Amino acid sequence: MILTVTPNPSLDRTYEVPSLDRGEVVRATGDRMDPGGKGVNVSRAVAAAGQRTVAVLPLGGAPGRFVAQLLDEQGIEVAPVPVAGQTRSNISIAEPDGTLTKINAPGPELSPEEQELLLETVRRQSAGAAWIACCGSLPRGLAPSWYAELVARAHAAGARIALDTSGPALLAALRERPDVVKPNAEELAEAVGRPLATVGDAVKAAEELRELGARAVLASLGADGQLLVDDSGAYFASAPVAVVRSNVGAGDSSLAGFLIAGGSGPEALASAVAHGAAAVQLPGSVMPTPADLEPAAVTVTSVIPQDQALTEAVS
């Protein structure tokens, strides 16, 4: 079982449009409503793969009830933490060329009692979990050290932690030695405080995160592929993508693929890339099923293309 923790979940509506023209009336060619939040997406991807998952998340108001209903319909066990504020609602606008415009609401502010109840719910639900995936931004009221506290408590209980967050929350949590962290290129550059122009730059940045405490770093480099840097060395993997429809949740699908495959080593990296490549070819935040995956298309190597320029260099 993979337990996910999403401190700031959302109700996500995605519109597909021919083009986004500012100030004009735009008619959508398709739309869908999904439960959102990075940890929620990991649970959705795990469930789509036929594996058991439990989602811990604070829920409030009508949007919160709808999120729980949608997750239940997808066969995901929900461990809700009732909060006084309303769960946020987000909007994504997807264009045919893969351009995505997102409007994310801030979400409710959690009281000290609600924060502690969230941690306690994670503790109660973690028995028997192969991994705990802690994902996404922190809602108002939670200090950057909140993830560090969660990692410390989880490790004290003998659980393995995968952390997907950024900024001060990521840096604060590194001192508690999360088992794997999953930044994208932009988050990796932010963490080390300098631009990344090549795959080699990304490897060096990942190694610095390991020096700060991360036991392994799974880094998404967008269209260029993904990196895994751990005790055994560094690995680079990529897969061709015919058409990008939406990258919403693609990184979360990658993390799910990594954890499903055991959460370590090149085989897990290959699974992560296969899941991410499949996800970007699906509409909205639809998560891939095993039928959508093309594992034979993934290449994994320990010979890092150090000088390969990133398609989207990060400044």
TrEMBL record:
Family to which this protein belongs: Belongs to the carbohydrate kinase PfkB family.
Superkingdom, taxonomy of origin: Bacteria
Keywords: ATP-binding, Kinase, Nucleotide-binding, Transferase
Regions that span the bilayer: none
GO biological process: carbohydrate catabolic process; small molecule metabolic process
Protein name (database record): Tagatose-6-phosphate kinase
Boundaries of every Carbohydrate kinase PfkB domain copy: 16-290
SUPFAM superfamilies: Ribokinase-like
Top EC group: transferase
GO function term, MF aspect, one: ATP binding
Pfam families reported in the protein's UniProt record: PfkB
Signal peptide: none
Listed EC numbers: 2.7.1.144
GO cellular component, one term: cytosol
